């Protein structure tokens, strides 16, 4: 018989080795005993698994602890437990496999790889996995909690009682595991953890959960592992830097508000969103974070579920259909991914096992002042695997094209948003976070192994080589947001046109460094929140001038080197700044001024895609040449875009409300006539319709020098407008 001390410890949920006591064991004399802990059971009998015959009734000693010596058996055998539950709880009676009759779940090789930082698909080992052993189906649970005294999995399958399924500690990696027979898909679960000092912690959700409850509930949900989903073959070419890449950024919950529910389902989004984005000429759709997060107001940027599509939009399988719908529409899909920080909610990763294993231990390294969040310990192998595994998971298992990585600048520098004395230098005495830099490089190398997949960095500093290959010392991102371009040009556009002559360089300065990275030009959600107003409201002047300024700016942006990104609502000149709790004001499209801006963005996308000169050398200096960069007096800019094979497009911007008729524009050699391909002042877009006609003969090239060139054309330059010209 088990000692009273052992029984007391098991009943208290404090036993150091439950697998050494529960289940089938031989005593010192070689006699077999079976022991179970089922607190709500009334009676338990031992059955032969093969024949179903009853072998022995277990004695109920106290508190739901049952045991019996097994008669006439000398060797281990497969058995079942016939249980009669008190008060009819969990069903009046049932026959069950015993979780303590199963061998360790994870191999020594798996554990060694996890401990040494060599397992970059850790989600295959950790988390909840549906498995089958013979005729017994169930769930294998595994969780990393190296400093815990005891970890139990709790859920609906055991009345949330931590005494029922204490897990086995695999000391090699600090991983706790158990197979729970008869648990299944859809079961709720969490981990009950006793810290090393004996404190019972708040129940913890599974960091590797693939599905979670809808907030405010916080349990994890057993879900199948998605199948490996390769990118469609055509996506590899579509994501290259010589391709046209124009991104539509979306907050899935507020793009269109459902009339029948708080959030649209993935299937509802799949029916409308990809078709709209494709019709608008965008090449890619980017979703703000859709991994599970507790607070709507964080827009997903304070995530606690880096492996789980948010329950806000329905079951995970709906997301798979949404991804397919995007690809069927010819779109790439990018996900906003947040490895920089996580919130300190009690059910999450903060002090997960009673110690700071996911976050840096010292608040000077591990706490984000800006967002009141915790910073991952990028130097810890298990944390690096968690993050890199998440990046691979979304691409390999869901088939998305890539990730836009949030807040990279905050990861790169230890003094980010910290005053002197409130940060810890690196081992070299510098301010760079060497561990984060190493992790990002490693992550990008792993993503780079996946055909066609890409990563995009939101990085706002001058850190060198963000989009350079890791083998040259870069971080390995494919693209980097050009935050400097965005800030400079928006400051310029906010100026009254009469004052723009004094700020002319804000529009040209970006070309000094435009080809130092593979840049993406972002007008993201960050520019239309927190009192910044909408894009339209940023523009000066009366209503006509606001629309004209915005159209001219979009023309400038689409003609400028760099991939494009525009946040939802800005394609039709939303008047108020974005509110995540409301749907977009689609009714504005009944106003032809707003509809005109939408038509312009569609046509800019089509022009950008149609003309290789506007995209093929987006990231190379050979694709750009100034015609007029210094005409501050008239606030005019003009340049040539090239594709390296002889194709060209000329872009001209007039950033004042003064029309310029008969304007002489210097042009490159080799073309006899040019035609107007797009004019943001067209009446079709809501403009004054001043332009250069669409005659087949176009605008003839004249042997009249202008702008330092020996040839020129004479054009009409509309007020507050951008005009594109292509050779005939």
UniProtKB/TrEMBL annotation:
Entry's EC annotation: 2.4.1.18
Report the family membership: Belongs to the glycosyl hydrolase 13 family. GlgB subfamily.
Tell me the route in metabolism or biology where this protein functions: Glycan biosynthesis; glycogen biosynthesis
* Name assigned to this protein: 1,4-alpha-glucan branching enzyme GlgB
Task: Record the organism.
Answer: Pelomonas parva
Q: Which UniProt keywords apply?
A: Carbohydrate metabolism, Glycogen biosynthesis, Glycogen metabolism, Glycosyltransferase, Transferase
Molecular functions per Gene Ontology:
1,4-alpha-glucan branching enzyme activity
EC main class here is transferase
User: SUPFAM superfamilies from the entry?
Assistant: (Trans)glycosidases, E set domains, Glycosyl hydrolase domain
Q: Which SMART domains match?
A: Aamy
* Gene3D superfamilies hit by this protein: Glycosidases (3.20.20.80), Golgi alpha-mannosidase II (2.60.40.1180), Immunoglobulins (2.60.40.10)
């Amino acid at each position: 018989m088990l000692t009273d001390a052992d029984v007391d410890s098991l009943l208290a949920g404090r036993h150091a080795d439950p697998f050494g006591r529960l289940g089938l064991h031989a005593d010192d004399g070689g006699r077999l005993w079976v022991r179970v802990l089922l607190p709500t059971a009334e009676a338990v009998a031992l059955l032969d698994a093969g024949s179903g015959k009853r072998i022995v009734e277990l004695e109920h000693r106290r508190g739901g602890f049952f045991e019996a010596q097994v008669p006439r058996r000398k060797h281990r055998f497969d058995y079942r437990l016939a249980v009669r539950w008190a008060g009819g709880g969990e069903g009046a009676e049932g026959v069950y496999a015993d979780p303590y009759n199963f061998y360790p779940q994870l191999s020594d090789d798996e554990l060694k790889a996890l401990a040494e930082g060599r397992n970059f698909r850790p989600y295959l080992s950790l988390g909840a996995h549906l498995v089958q052993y013979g005729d017994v189906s169930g769930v294998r649970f595994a969780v990393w909690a190296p400093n815990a005294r005891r970890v139990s999995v709790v859920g609906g399958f055991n009345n949330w009682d931590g005494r029922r399924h204490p897990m086995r500690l695999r000391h090699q990696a600090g991983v706790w595991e158990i197979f729970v027979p008869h648990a299944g898909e859809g079961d709720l679960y969490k981990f009950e953890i006793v810290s090393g000092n004996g404190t019972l912690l708040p129940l913890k959700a599974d960091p590797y959960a693939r599905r979670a409850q809808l907030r405010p509930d916080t349990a994890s949900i057993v879900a199948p592992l998605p199948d490996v989903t390769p990118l469609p073959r055509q996506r590899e070419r579509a994501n290259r830097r010589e391709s046209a890449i124009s991104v539509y950024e979306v907050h899935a919950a507020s793009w269109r508000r459902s009339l029948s529910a708080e959030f649209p389902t993935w299937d509802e989004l799949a029916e409308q969103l990809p078709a709209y984005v494709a019709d608008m000429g965008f090449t890619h759709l980017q979703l703000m974070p859709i991994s599970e997060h507790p607070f709507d107001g964080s827009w997903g940027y304070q995530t606690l579920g880096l492996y789980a599509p948010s329950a806000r939009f329905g079951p995970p399988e709906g997301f798979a259909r949404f991804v397919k719908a995007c690809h069927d529409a010819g779109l790439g899909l990018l996900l906003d991914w947040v490895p920089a920080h996580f919130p300190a909610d009690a059910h999450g990763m903060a002090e997960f096992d009673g110690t700071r294993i996911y976050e840096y231990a010292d608040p000077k390294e591990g706490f984000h002042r800006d967002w009141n969040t915790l910073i991952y310990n990028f130097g810890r192998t298990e944390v690096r695997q968690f993050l890199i595994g998440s990046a691979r998971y979304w691409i390999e298992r869901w088939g998305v094209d890539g990730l836009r990585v949030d807040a990279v600048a905050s990861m790169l520098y230890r003094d980010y948003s910290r005053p002197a004395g409130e940060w810890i230098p690196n081992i070299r005495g510098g301010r760079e976070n060497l561990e984060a830099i190493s992790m990002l490089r490693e992550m990008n190398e792993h993503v780079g192994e996946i055909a066609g997949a890409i990563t995009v960095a939101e990085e706002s500093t001058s850190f060198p080589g963000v989009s350079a290959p890791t083998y040259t010392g870069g971080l390995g991102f494919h693209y980097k947001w050009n935050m400097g371009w965005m800030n400079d040009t928006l400051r310029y556009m906010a100026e009254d046109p009469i004052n723009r002559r004094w700020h002319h360089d804000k529009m040209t300065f970006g070309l000094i460094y435009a080809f130092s990275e593979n840049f993406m030009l972002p007008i993201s959600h960050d520019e239309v929140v927190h009192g910044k107003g909408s894009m339209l409201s940023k523009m000066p002047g009366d209503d006509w001038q606001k629309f004209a300024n915005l159209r001219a700016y979009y023309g400038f942006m689409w003609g400028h080197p760099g991939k494009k990104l525009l946040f939802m609502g800005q394609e039709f000149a939303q008047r108020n700044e974005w509110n995540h709790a409301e749907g977009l004001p689609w009714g504005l499209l009944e106003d032809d001024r707003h509809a005109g801006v939408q038509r312009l963005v569609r046509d800019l996308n089509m022009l950008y895609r149609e003309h290789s000169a506007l995209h093929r050398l987006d990231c190379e200096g050979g694709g750009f040449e100034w015609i007029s960069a210094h005409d501050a007096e008239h606030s005019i800019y003009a340049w040539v875009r090239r594709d390296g094979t002889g194709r060209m497009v000329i872009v001209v911007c007039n950033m004042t409300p003064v029309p310029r008729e008969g304007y002489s524009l210097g042009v490159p050699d080799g073309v006899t006539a040019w035609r107007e391909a797009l004019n943001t002042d067209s009446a079709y877009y809501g403009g004054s319709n001043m332009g250069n006609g669409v005659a087949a003969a176009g605008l003839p090239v004249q042997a009249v020098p202008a702008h330092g060139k020996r040839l020129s054309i004479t054009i009409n330059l509309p007020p507050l407008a951008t005009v594109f010209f292509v050779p005939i």
